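Q: I'm a student working through a structural biology exercise. My instructor gave each of us a protein and asked us to get a predicted structure, then write a short paragraph describing it. Mine is Galactokinase. I'm not confident about reading structure output yet, so if you can add a plain explanation after the tokens, that would really help. Here is the sequence I was given:
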Amino acid sequence: MDKAKSFEDLFGGAPEARADAPGRVNLLGEHTDYNDGFVLPTAIPQRTRVEISRSPDGQHHFYAVKLDVLSSVAPEGPAPDNFAGYVFGCIELLKARGHAIGPLCMRIDSEVPMGAGLSSSAALEVATLRGLRQLFNLPIDDVEIAQIAQIAEIEYAHVRCGIMDQMASSLADTGHMLFLDTRTLERRVLPLPAHAEIVVIDSGVPRTLAGSKYNERREECEAAAARLGVPALRDITDPTATDTLPEPLRRRARHVISENNRVLEAATGICAERFGELMNASHASLRDDYEVSVPELDYLVDLLQQEETVFGARLTGAGFGGACVALVRAGEGRSVAERVLASYNRAHQGRVLVPDYRQRF
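A: Happy to help. First, here is the predicted structure for Galactokinase. I'll explain a few features afterward.
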């Protein structure tokens, strides 16, 4: 493999600003954020890093190391439809808020895998906004960065996402859970259950949210909330309240309501065994009621759940492919991952995405 092109190689000088942001893994609270609900993500060790300087020629130039693609864009647009669209969107939203952002050169290098449900797009957006904040000394805080990043995803990637991914990338760390109320943005940093560690394994099945049924699920939730007479499904706590709804709205709403209840229980400080039970129930709900799993994810989760030292496992992210997360007895993560991957790879191609099993809580 050829040596990666440096910023100096690409643009003929040193960067004026550097920034980074992590991906995230969501432990509980899937598809609840765009329903004004509750989530429990944590940051992962993998990060996206950006280097930025002002462009000398009146054009934006964005280079992605992993793709080995240089995208040159006129500041007046239109927005590109590749990775550069996320960056362009962040710049345009800052300009719309009155910040003077001129043409830029940017080098992007990311350890966060794309299409694995670990928020590679949020990491790119947050890293970009952090870099621009540094370069132009912008008076924006970490919450505002997350809010701008979410709008960039919606308006420029056309994914009607909630704010969980961007808040986690902007505010979470790898040693704690971030309990977040996505309606009020009230948040608390919480420890995970004692004597446990996290394992994340990619199913090897990529997914793209814009091309999946993600937006359709959001529309179904909005329709269910309207029929139930509430602003959002977060305003209902009893899953049986959905019994009056037609299918599939009943099952979609039942998942969201029960998932919010799982997050609220987990946030009270429960043992690893009970946390694992909630993760297992979350996966069953995502598979059966929300219908966002795929056979590869179900198989991988089943292998994890059969392990004696695994407290619980579920798909993480929006589904339709991507990764699974498991809560494992401290010290057992590597051996669990090796056994599960050996079994999984007999039929599929998975890969461990968080190999640092010393991440214990």
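A: Here are two points you could use in your paragraph. The two ends are 37 Å apart (CA to CA). The first strand starts at residue 17 and ends at 28. It's a good idea to check both against the output above yourself.
Q: Great, thank you!
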